[in-house]
Every structure is written in C-alpha cells, then in structure tokens.
Amino acid sequence: MPEGPPDERFLYLSDVIPTAWQAVRYADVPQGGTLAVYGLGPIGQFCLRVAKRLGVERVIAVDLVPERMELARRYGAEIVEWTDDSDPALEIVDLTNGRGADSVIDAVGTEAHGAPVQAAMQTLAARSPASIATRLMEKVGSDRTAALHAAISTVRRGGTLSIVGVYGGAATPMPMMELFDNQVQVRLGQANVKAWIDEIMPHVTDGADPLGTEDFATHRLPLDEAPRAYELFQKKEDGAIKVVLKP
C-alpha cells in the first residue's frame, strides 16, 4: 500500500476512475490505433490517462477550456480546440490522414450551453414537479448533442464509439443512417464499478502513481464551501477541474 493519505490516492475509485476505465475498455482501441476523447472534465482527463497507461500511443483530446487542454497535454494528448468557428471532427479526420479515429469516447454528455430549443425543454422540466419533469424527459425530452454528433462524425468506418457522458432525453435525435452506413459499434452505460476494481488497483497502488491521482484535484475546500465549489466547477472559474471537499 503506498504512502500518503488514502483520501488523496484512492478518492476516485468509487466513480471517476472506474467510469474512465470502462469507457476506454469499451472503446476497444486496436493495436497502434488512435483514440479521440471529447470533453476534458474529470472523466475525460482520466480517460486519456488510462488509455496511455494501457498502451494507447495516440490520444487526441477535444475541449475548449485552456486549463483542461493544458493538463491533457501534460499527459501526452494531442489537442484539438473546439471554437465557435471550428469543426473538431474534420480536424481529427485531417490529423488521421482522412481516416478518422479508430475509437472515440464522448465524455461530454448533454451540454450546458447552446441548442436553445433543448435548453428551453430542460429548463421547463427543471421547474416542474418531479413527477411531471420525469415524464417530460422520458417522453419528449431532448438533449443538447453537438459533442455526440461530432464524436460520431469522428469515428472511422468500422470503428467504435464509447459513450460515457450522460444523456437523458428520450427524444434525442441520432444520426442513425451515418452510424449504420459507417458500421460504427456503439457501447455505453453506467460504470460497473466492482467489475473493474481488481483490474484498476495495481495501477493505483503503484508507488509512481501513473494515473496522477494524488495531484489531480485543483481545489480543496471545506465542506461548508460546497456551494462555492459547485459554482467554480460549473462556471469553469479559477482553473477548476476537480474540487475535493474536506469535512
């Protein structure tokens, strides 16, 4: 067992690392293949670290927050910045000589910005009683899916899309013809945490800390500052990537 406080070294074993581990395993990157990761929040960051640890040589990461992109660079990712006038899928296709990435992970999920129609629907659901909100999302809810559609356009023919970001709207549109025509395998679902723990533990207990768990948190705040912590993360202020709350 490594030295150091367990809440720093093993803090992420209950959710973040198993989720990222499953996403990478589901992505099934072939030997010598390229993995693209959309979204560099905590899950996306660990996806690229896990991928590198498991031998994936080339990881291309997509985000728009400077601090997140810089952190990903430190762990060996090539960066594609998503701006208002850029097409990250097209850039990745160009970077892979027109082929596309062999495997793609969507670590974004339903997005916090854009898509005004979907935003209005989600706002309506949020302001409704719980029972009504649930029915709205189950029957007519639609997610903001720019990242998902970009991820689908990034996968090469016969490649794999691993969705770890959460989508909840039953009416979310999907480009089924593109998926069908390109023979894309789609794998997704909540992390089966216990199924991966035995496989993960040697990489966490390694004294060299190859996944960078001990210094991953950018902010450590007392529990009574939890509202501020959520605000920092939501608004992407002060370089916040991961906040640890201390009782």
What would you say this structure looks like, in words?
By secondary structure, the protein is α/β, with parallel strands linked by helices. The protein is 42% helix and 17% strand. The chain has 3 domains: 6-110 and 146-216, Rossmann fold (3-Layer(aba) Sandwich); 111-144, no CATH class; 218-247, no CATH class. The chain has helices spanning 6-9, 16-27, 42-53, 66-74, 88-95, 116-126, 130-139, 146-154, 176-181, 193-205, 226-234, and strands at residues 34-38, 58-63, 78-81, 101-106, 155-163, 185-188, 219-222, 243-246. α3 (42-53) links the parallel β1 and β2 (58-63). α2 crosses α10 (193-205), α5 (88-95) packs parallel to α8 and α6 runs antiparallel to α7. The radius of gyration is 18 Å and the shape is globular. The two termini are 24 Å apart. Mean pLDDT is 86; it is low at 1-6, 112-125 and 136-143.
Indicate the topology.
Blueprint: H1 6-9, H2 16-27, E1 34-38, H3 42-53, E2 58-63, H4 66-74, E3 78-81, H5 88-95, E4 101-106, H6 116-126, H7 130-139, H8 146-154, E5 155-163, H9 176-181, E6 185-188, H10 193-205, E7 219-222, H11 226-234, E8 243-246
Parallel strand pairs: 1-2, 1-4, 2-3, 4-5, 5-6, 7-8
Helix pairs in contact: 2-3, 2-10, 5-8, 6-7
Short structural description:
The chain is α/β, with parallel strands linked by helices. The protein is built from 11 helices and 8 strands.
What labels would you give this structure?
Rossmann fold; two-stranded parallel ribbon; 247 residues; 11 helices; 3 domains; six-stranded parallel β-sheet; single chain; alpha/beta
